[in-house]
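Fold it.
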Amino acid sequence: MSTTTTLSEAYREHPLHPHHIIPIDFNSVCSLPESHKWPKSDDLYDNKISVPVIDLRDPKVAQLIGRACEKWGVFQLIYHGIPLNLLKDAESEARRLFSLPSRQKLKALRAPAGATGYGIARITPFFDKYMWHEGFTIMGTSIHDHAKQLWPHNHAKFCDVMETYQKKMNILADQLTQLIFKSLDISEEQAEEMNWVGSSSALQLNSYPSCPEPNRAVGLAPHTDTSLMTILHENSIAGLQIFKQEVGWVSVKPVDGALVVNVGDLFHILSNARFPNVLHRVSVNQKRQRLSLAYFYNPPTDSTVVPIVKSGQVARYRPVTVKEFISLKAKSPEKALSCIKT
């Protein structure tokens, strides 16, 4: 009898050293530590152009999303059907978590071979400096164990809100996937052949505390997401920047009630490199904390992603299972795609 691999299990083969997991106590530092001080960057970002904003109710929504994925790899989605009060509740619960004393948050610290709980970004080992960031990762039923560690007698609301949030995000991600399939001219028969029964997903809560030297700190270093797609809710504090070819870094201005949707590595592979897996980073603010909730949506971990090749085209990548690609990315983020190039 075959068993399926969970997303959490896929990460266990790549344990991290504790110093790549434990955040500093941001409330105890008055100046930027040398460990978090990045070289001054000459990278300018463009504030004059904006990523596309798409109304999910638009009759041409599949075409609009396909074009945005192809030209940008990212778009903002409005009238998406996620209740605004749920977004506010989820943000409020994330703020409640990150407002806990450091010693309390460390009770839910991510294990070296784990993928869930409190800690810093998984990309940390691949950079010389630390990021001005703390996070909390939820996969499957892990939320209950970790929430009890944080709030032994007051965790029910956090669990209820986050579970509802994930269910709603999964429905939206399914809907967006079907629209993107339509834009790629993937037939129902082709979609069925993929045999993606269900999905694997993760919810990442992010906090970027106010920073004494924001020009020398980095909230999140440039990276692409391993997911099929990522759906991001952020508070009103700007900070997300995406890289667009021939333009450079572009600031994603928060739009009230909108969700940011970006193409991950797996959709880049599936689209045969038609969709860019958008490179993105996060800057920090001197006076205000930035919060975000990132929902990473994937096919089932044991499923295979095969490039959709049109007539006359050549496959840019070989077929790869989600689990194998996670492994390649965990070993070397910058070389993962080159390892599966044809």
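The mean pLDDT is 92.
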